[in-house]
Structure formats: structure tokens, C-alpha cells
Design goal:
The chain contains 14 helices and 23 strands. The chain is α/β, with parallel strands linked by helices. A hairpin with a 6-residue loop joins strand 14 (232-238) and strand 15 (245-250). The chain starts with a strand and ends in a 9-residue tail after the last helix. Bound molecules: flavin-adenine dinucleotide. Flavin-adenine dinucleotide binds next to helix 1, strand 5, strand 9, helix 3 and helix 4.
Length: 479
């Protein structure tokens, strides 16, 4: 018995900037394309457009050039013969030795479906990275990405007063967006150093552009009485059943706390984020080769110059190949599409090539900037020593650091072994949150430069409803 499949020339998984750019080029040139995304509408993490009923309420509208271009790209899809299936989470990919393969997942109506194509582009993007601290599971402690989604997608403020903490570009941007939306942000705490940030400015024009954006956000926060402090980490979030206060501590360059510098600050809402990690699970499950590069966000899908993965007919584009920002994601989407256009012999290679030339050429400094942003997103290693044993690290299975630490101390750094021994990573999120945490802990404990391989990924890569199995449409053939 096998799943009944619908056939396409190209299937694209992920409708962020990378997937959308690829879809626009391929569909515009006449290829039969299916674009799948688990979100309610296309756009990914960057192009968040409120649902029609909520549009009036949405408080934040990005005004930068790249965002405007992205929105135009979204609008241009309406004129194309492109099949987009939103609210469809892809659960597995079975590669075909001839190229491409079968993709299957749960659709909007809660049913399982499968699709087949000789060319598949994986463009699943990235998610936030979390560093646990005591009390981080308390209601009132949320991620910076969640705050952004509330503001941009629904026009909701998480609270009137929000503390923001973490490193990388998102926390300060979110603090500025919160202020614009009318919230008070009394404190923004960044565990990295100011001088470290200044270092980025030597790396070219694009870094100055980003720095100007950061200064704008900082000014917004300060004009409303807020303060941005560097080399400050969260020691603890406290409260009975809800966040009531945050304990901060000053740290040195390596993350060691400065004795006597603890401060207790009343808080009802704390937004935290520490950079991004690529969503590699689907590629990993299919058997695509991965590689480790801390300057690209950790484990990424290995691609060649044409965005081919190690499997025939399977390409990867955007942040699953490395955290590098919106422009690079868009550019990669187009390059992956171009590689397919050449193979499909749509007879329009020249048109595609001309289109590719019109894209902003990637400047070297943009790639430099991506590296620096990833470096600024990694908090000092000493922060791991601040995590007490009773801190939960796997939220699904309630596994504490104290349950993992003895294994690490006895030299167990293999994540599968840690998972089998402790159940960390066995819950519904399948290690999406605790996987990168375990990786960092094992890396710190082994004092190695590279972390161990990531937790293994198997299909289904995401949880789905059992009821979807009941009315499965199959071909009826026996295997
Ligand atoms: C939380 C967060 C907030 C961000 N905010 C900003 C910002 O404010 N400004 C900025 O410049 N950059 C921001 N970025 C970075 C920005 O998203 C990237 O630079 C760029 O847009 C990435 O494009 P992408 O196409 O690679 O991935 P994404 O835009 O992440 O798109 C990936 C898409 O894949 C879909 N997907 C993933 N897995 C599956 C699956 N199994 N089945 C179906 N669909 C799937 C997701 O739903 C998503 O729509 C943010 C990133 C994150 C993670």
C-alpha cells in the first residue's frame, strides 16, 4: 500500500523569501510548481502579513527596501499559475534515486497527502535558538519571535511593559517594534559586549546600514525611558505561576558573573532570543548531507554552488543552508530555480539568466555581515555554567539539566545516547528546542570545537493528528 500522489515538475517546501523567489521564477517560466507551507499564508518569518480581518490592528509595518521588495514578490504570485498549499506541514521526504522524490504531509483539512516531483527545493528557513535559565518556562517568559508574530500578525501587545533580553539582531529590533506599538520597554539586556558590536562596523557599507537600523531601534527605546545594557545576563525568572521578577547579573567577556552585581527587577513579561538555528530536520530525514559551520548558525544543509544537496534533484535554499539574512535567502531561491530551469530545458534559460542578472549582486560585505551577525548571536560560553541543575532543558518531557549533567560529566556527548538515557528530545517538538541546547551543552562539556552530530531526524518530522491516518487515500497496491 502506498500513498496516492499528485505529480508536479517542481515542489518547493517553505514559502519564505527563498521559496517564494524560486516559485516566482519557475512558475513565471511555465513550470508546474507546487509550493507547500505550514503557515496560514505565504511569507515565512520575514514577510508577515496580517490576515485580512486583522490588518487594521497590525501595529508594525516594515519600511525597509528589502521588505517592500518581498511584499511585491508576494503580490506578484497572484498573477501566476502556481499552486500554493498553506497550512500544510510536510512530514517526510522519500528521495528517488532518479532525482527528486515523494513529499508527504498533513494538509489544511487534517488529511495526509503526498506529492511527487523530479525536482524539490527545500526552503524550510530557521527558528530561534534558546538558552535556558532558571524559570524560563514560567508564563510571561516568551520568545522575541513570538512577540514579533503578535505585533505584526495580529496587532497584539504581549503586555504594556515588556523586558527584552538576548543577543543577535532580533531582540533590539523587537524592543524598538514594541515601543513603536505603544509598549514600554524599560530594559534591554544583551549578554554580548558593545565593543564586539562595534567591530562589525569595520566590515563595510552593509554593516553600517544594519548599525543605523540598530541605532534607530535603540533611540526609540531610550526616548521612552528604556535602557540597553551590554554584558548582562538573565540569572533567573521568578514568580508563582506567572513571571513576577527577573534576576539579572553582570558578566565578563567569557560569561562569568561579577559577584554582587545581581539585580532583581519586577516584570510581568520578558521576551528572550539568542539568534537562529536552521530547520534542517526534513533534509536530514531525507538523507541530505549536513555540515557544521558556527558562522552560519551551526548544522546546515550542505549545498554546492548550484544549491544542489548531496541527493539528486533535491536543492536547498535560504536559511537552511546557513543563517545569512533576507537578501541572501532571496538570491539563493532564484539560483536554485535557475539550476532547475536549466535542467528542465524550459527553453527559456536565457530569460531566466537575464532575470538572475537583474538581482542585486551579492556583495562580499553582505556575506561578512552574515558571519558577524552569527557571531554576535552566540552568547558567551560561561553562561552555561549559570544554569542550575533544576532548570528544565527539555520542555516537552520535563527533563532538567541535573538529569543530563552526570552523563556529560562521564563523557557522554553523543546526542542520541543522551536522548535514550534521559528522554530529552523525545517529546512532541522532537528536539527542536532542546536539540540545539543539548548540542551546546555537549560541546561545552567536551571542550571540543565542533558539537556532536545533531539529534537524528525521522519521518514524520513533526507531530500530526492520528485521525489523518484513518481516511488515508492510497493506491491500494501491496508492498
Ligand atoms: C523568528 C524569526 C524572526 C525573524 N525576524 C526578522 C526580521 O524582523 N527582519 C529580518 O530582516 N529578518 C528576520 N528574520 C530572518 C529572516 O526570516 C530570514 O532572513 C529570511 O527571510 C529567511 O528566508 P527563508 O525563506 O530561508 O526562511 P523563512 O522565511 O523562515 O521561511 C521558511 C518557511 O518554511 C516553512 N516550513 C518550515 N518547515 C516546514 C514544514 N515541515 N512543512 C511546511 N512548511 C515548512 C515555514 O512555515 C516558513 O514559512 C527572522 C527569522 C526568524 C526565525
Amino acid at each position: 500500500m502506498s500513498l496516492k500522489t499528485a505529480a508536479y515538475q517542481v515542489i518547493i517546501i517553505g514559502a519564505g523569501l527563498a521559496g517564494l523567489s524560486a516559485a516566482e521564477m519557475l512558475s513565471g517560466l511555465g513550470a508546474k510548481v507546487l509550493l507547500l507551507d505550514e503557515g496560514m499564508q505565504p511569507g515565512g518569518q520575514y514577510l508577515k502579513r496580517p490576515l485580512p480581518l486583522l490588518r487594521r490592528l497590525a501595529t508594525i509595518h516594515d519600511n525597509d527596501k528589502m521588505h517592500k521588495k518581498g511584499m511585491e514578490l508576494l503580490d506578484s504570485l497572484n498573477g501566476l499559475e502556481l499552486e500554493i498549499q498553506a497550512c500544510t506541514q510536510v512530514l517526510g521526504l522519500e528521495p528517488d534515486s532518479q532525482g527528486g522524490g515523494m513529499v508527504w504531509g498533513e494538509t489544511k483539512d487534517g488529511k495526509l497527502s503526498a506529492w511527487r516531483a523530479p525536482h524539490i527545493i527545500l526552503a524550510a528557513g530557521a527558528r530561534e535558538r534558546f538558552i535556558p535559565f532558571k524559570g524560563w518556562t514560567l508564563p510571561g517568559v516568551i520568545s522575541t519571535g513570538a512577540v514579533q508574530l503578535m505585533l505584526k500578525g495580529s496587532g497584539i501587545l504581549p503586555a504594556d511593559k515588556v523586558m527584552v533580553a538576548g543577543c543577535g539582531p532580533l531582540p533590539l529590533a523587537v524592543a524598538g517594534e514594541l515601543v513603536k506599538a505603544g509598549a514600554r520597554v524599560p530594559h534591554v539586556w544583551d549578554p554580548t559586549g558593545f565593543l564586539q558590536k562595534l567591530g562589525t562596523l569595520r566590515k563595510g557599507a552593509i554593516a553600517w546600514e544594519k548599525a543605523a537600523q540598530a541605532i534607530k531601534y535603540q533611540a526609540l527605546v531610550m526616548l521612552k525611558g528604556g535602557r540597553l545594557r551590554h554584558r548582562v545576563a538573565i540569572l533567573e525568572a521568578r514568580g508563582s505561576g506567572q513571571l513576577e521578577e527577573v534576576v539579572t547579573v553582570r558578566i565578563n567577556r567569557s560569561g562569568k558573573p561579577k559577584g554582587g552585581s545581581e539585580r532583581v527587577i519586577p516584570a510581568r513579561c520578558l521576551a528572550v532570543g539568542h539568534g537562529f538555528v536552521p530547520n534542517i530536520e526534513l533534509a536530514q530525514q531525507a538523507g541530505c548531507e549536513l555540515e557544521y559551520d558556527a558562522d552560519r548558525g551551526g548544522w546546515v544543509v550542505r549545498v554546492d554552488a548550484g544549491l544542489n544537496t548531496s541527493l539528486p534533484g533535491i536543492y536547498a535554499a535560504g536559511e537552511i543552508t546557513g543563517i545569512a539574512g533576507a537578501k541572501i535567502s532571496q538570491n539563493q531561491g532564484c539560483r536554485a530555480a535557475y539550476a532547475i530551469v536549466k535542467k528542465l530545458e524550459l527553453g527559456k534559460v536565457l530569460r531566466a539568466s537575464a532575470y538572475l542578472d537583474t538581482l542585486t549582486m551579492l556583495r562580499k560585505d553582505e556575506e561578512h555581515l552574515a558571519v558577524l551577525i552569527n557571531r554576535l548571536s552566540i552568547p558567551p560560553a560561561g553562561l552555561w555554567d549559570l544554569v542550575p541543575d533544576n532548570t528544565i532543558i527539555c520542555r516537552c518531557e520535563d527533563i532538567t539539566f541535573g538529569q543530563v549533567r552526570p552523563l556529560l560529566n562521564s563523557g557522554v556527548y553523543d546526542l542520541s545516547e543522551l536522548k535514550r538515557s534521559t528522554r530529552a528530545g523525545m517529546g512532541p517538538c522532537q528536539g527542536r528546542t532542546c536539540g540545539p541546547i543539548l548540542e551546546a551543552l555537549a560541546q561545552a562539556a567536551s571542550r571540543g570545537k565542533e558539537p556532536p552530530p545533531p539529534l537524528p531526524a525521522r519521518a514524520p518530522v513533526k507531530p500530526f493528528r492520528l485521525s489523518a491516518l484513518l481516511d488515508l487515500e492510497t493506491t491500494g497496491d501491496k508492498k
